[in-house]
């Protein structure tokens, strides 16, 4: 349960602490006194949207802090601990602190257990601690999605597990359908591309180029084209090294180096310092002799071969044609061929993939249908039970001839299914005998919608309990005997949960276990001194103000005393 909420700088509230007890707590006060800001504070603690317009004029920030007493086993405690909140157990309970700040420049921060957390964590933590219902929730009750979600909540674990199973099956099926559609579109484009790729592949395979072949053929072409001058130059270099026809002479380089080595060898016998130079000169001579041999060998290989030259030029032309289309070098052409072959293979394998996907789609379609029918059956059963229980609650809320009906319409075509199932859920109300059942979205008045919302929450409290319910003017549009019955039903709900109600009706306020009055100070601000727990005559005075607007009305006081007596009898009978 929530034990207190402290608010600073939020709307008309400068600084106020509001305590809460078990049972039913009502919050009353003049219009504009700040009751709505209390609900806004709860909304912020629940991870709601932070609006800079909430910040009190002249304040740097709005600040809200709530303190809960929670069981250590609560999912809220586990989620807060997972987010890094400090969790300490005292006397078998956890005091869980949630906080929220909204700066005047728009920045918002959230806290859990003294640690900064994302606002989404507050939403997750508070979802198992409190259910807040206001005018906006009543309006959402008119929407089909809200009505379907309420039915699934009422259906309990079985319905929610069936819904989760259906969603998983539906998502898998839709994913397969989308992959088939995407692959079909891709295949059309890939088939068109494959036609061109196959032409290129055939051209390359007809030529059958080898890696680096273009470079080697360029070298051969140059050699064949310049065979004559190349031979003369090589022979001239050879003769310079060893003389003509290999005969040594005094002018060739090898002979000159040989004489130099012989002379330096004699000198080295005299002076050993010349030995390194002798070695270098001998090495030069050896290199020159080797070069001469290689030149002679090269010269023997040089010959003018018109047939070979013609073949080389034709081959170079064929390779050049490939390079113009598929790459700047033959190596790049070969890489293109490999990539194109892989793409064509993928297209060829597409038929097998399409058959596999089609088989999977058939199996998944059957699973979606099975899961949808199972979920629809659970919803239909839950709808009848929900209608019966809410109808009974409406009778207790001064609508003795009212009846509720939950209509579950199941679509026939799988193509019309949605992620939430095959069903359209619609809640219909017959407010009195003689009237027709009409959808809540069309036929319910504000007062009727308020009582339907309350009746639904009372019924759902047993199926999906939370420790605290907060109602913002759930009694809107209600008066007289109906208001008394609303107060009585809230009091009964508070026997099993903490209930906090913001109300303008004395008939509801009279049933409270704790009556909190919010009022503005003389300066127009709400502070802690402006928030009081009304007891005894003060409570009677507040009920008189709510009844008649007159502080000293004797008739109003008598009426207030009567309302309190009725509430006391209700509490006594429910024990």
Folded structure, characterized:
The protein is α/β, with parallel strands linked by helices. Helices cover 58% and strands 17% of the residues. It is built from 17 helices and 17 strands. It has helices spanning 35-45, 75-82, 119-126, 135-140, 144-207, 213-225, 227-242, 253-270, 275-301, 306-326, 330-396, 440-443, 446-463, 480-493, 506-509, 536-548, 554-574, and strands spanning 2-10, 13-19, 24-28, 61-70, 89-90, 93-103, 108-112, 115-117, 130-133, 403-410, 423-430, 438-439, 468-472, 498-502, 514-518, 526-527, 531-534. The two termini are 20 Å apart. Belongs to the RecN family. GO terms for molecular function: ATP binding. May be involved in recombinational repair of damaged DNA.
How would you summarize the topology of this molecule?
Elements: E1 2-10, E2 13-19, E3 24-28, H1 35-45, E4 61-70, H2 75-82, E5 89-90, E6 93-103, E7 108-112, E8 115-117, H3 119-126, E9 130-133, H4 135-140, H5 144-207, H6 213-225, H7 227-242, H8 253-270, H9 275-301, H10 306-326, H11 330-396, E10 403-410, E11 423-430, E12 438-439, H12 440-443, H13 446-463, E13 468-472, H14 480-493, E14 498-502, H15 506-509, E15 514-518, E16 526-527, E17 531-534, H16 536-548, H17 554-574
Parallel strand pairs: 2-16, 3-14, 3-15, 9-13, 13-14
Antiparallel strand pairs: 1-2, 1-4, 4-6, 5-6, 6-7, 7-8, 10-11, 11-12, 15-17
Keywords: ATP-binding, DNA damage, DNA repair, Nucleotide-binding
Domain RecF/RecN/SMC N-terminal: 1-525
Family: Belongs to the RecN family.
């Amino acid at each position: 349960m929530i034990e207190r909420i402290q608010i600073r700088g939020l709307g008309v509230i400068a600084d106020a602490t509001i305590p809460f007890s078990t049972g039913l707590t009502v919050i009353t006060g003049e219009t504009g006194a700040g009751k709505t800001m209390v609900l806004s504070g709860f909304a912020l603690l629940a991870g709601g949207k932070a609006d800079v317009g909430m910040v009190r004029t002249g304040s740097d920030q709005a600040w809200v802090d709530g303190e809960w007493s929670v069981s250590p086993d609560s999912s809220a405690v586990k989620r807060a601990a997972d987010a890094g909140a400090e969790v300490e157990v005292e006397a078998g309970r956890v005091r869980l602190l949630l906080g929220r700040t909204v700066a005047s420049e728009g920045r918002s921060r959230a806290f859990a257990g003294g640690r900064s957390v994302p606002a989404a964590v507050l939403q997750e933590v508070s979802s198992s601690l409190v259910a807040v219902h206001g005018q906006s929730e009543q309006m959402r009750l008119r929407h089909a999605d809200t009505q379907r979600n309420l039915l699934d909540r009422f259906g309990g674990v079985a319905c929610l597990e069936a819904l989760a199973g259906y969603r998983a099956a539906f998502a898998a099926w839709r994913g397969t359908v989308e992959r088939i559609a995407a692959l079909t579109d891709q295949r059309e484009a890939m088939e068109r591309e494959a036609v061109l790729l196959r032409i290129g592949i055939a051209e390359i395979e007809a030529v059958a180029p080898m890696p680096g072949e273009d470079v080697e053929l360029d070298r051969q072409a140059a050699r064949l084209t310049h065979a004559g001058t190349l031979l003369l130059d090589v022979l001239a270099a050879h003769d310079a090294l060893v003389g003509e026809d290999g005969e040594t002479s005094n002018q060739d380089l090898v002979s000159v180096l040989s004489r130099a080595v012989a002379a330096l060898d004699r000198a080295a016998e005299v002076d050993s310092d010349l030995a390194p130079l002798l070695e270098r000169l001998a090495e030069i001579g050896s290199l020159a002799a080797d070069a001469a041999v290689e030149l002679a060998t090269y010269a023997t290989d040089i010959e003018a071969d018109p047939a070979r030259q013609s073949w080389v030029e034709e081959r170079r032309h064929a390779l050049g044609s490939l390079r113009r289309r598929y790459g700047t070098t033959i190596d790049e052409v070969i890489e293109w061929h490999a990539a194109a072959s892989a793409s064509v293979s993928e297209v060829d394998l597409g038929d097998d993939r399409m058959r596999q996907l089609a088989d999977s789609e058939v199996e998944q379609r059957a699973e979606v249908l099975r899961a949808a029918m199972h979920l629809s059956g659970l919803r239909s059963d839950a709808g009848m039970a929900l209608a019966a229980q809410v109808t009974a609650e409406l009778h207790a809320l001064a609508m003795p001839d009212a009846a509720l009906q939950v209509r579950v319409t199941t679509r026939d075509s799988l193509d019309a299914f949605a992620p939430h199932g095959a069903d359209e859920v619609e809640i219909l109300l017959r407010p009195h005998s003689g009237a027709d059942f009409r959808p809540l979205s069309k036929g319910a008045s504000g007062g009727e919608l308020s009582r339907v919302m309350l009746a639904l929450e009372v019924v759902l409290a047993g199926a999906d309990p939370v420790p605290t319910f907060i109602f913002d003017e759930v009694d809107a549009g209600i008066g007289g005997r109906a208001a008394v019955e609303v107060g009585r039903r809230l009091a009964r709900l508070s026997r099993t949960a903490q209930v906090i109600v913001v109300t303008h009706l004395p008939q509801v306020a009279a049933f409270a276990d704790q009556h909190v009055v919010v009022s503005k100070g003389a300066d127009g601000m709400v502070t802690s001194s402006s928030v009081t727990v009304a007891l005894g005559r003060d409570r009677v005075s507040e009920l008189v103000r709510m009844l008649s607007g007159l502080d000293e009305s004797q008739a109003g006081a008598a009426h207030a005393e009567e309302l309190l007596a009725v509430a006391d009898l209700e509490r006594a009978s429910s024990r």
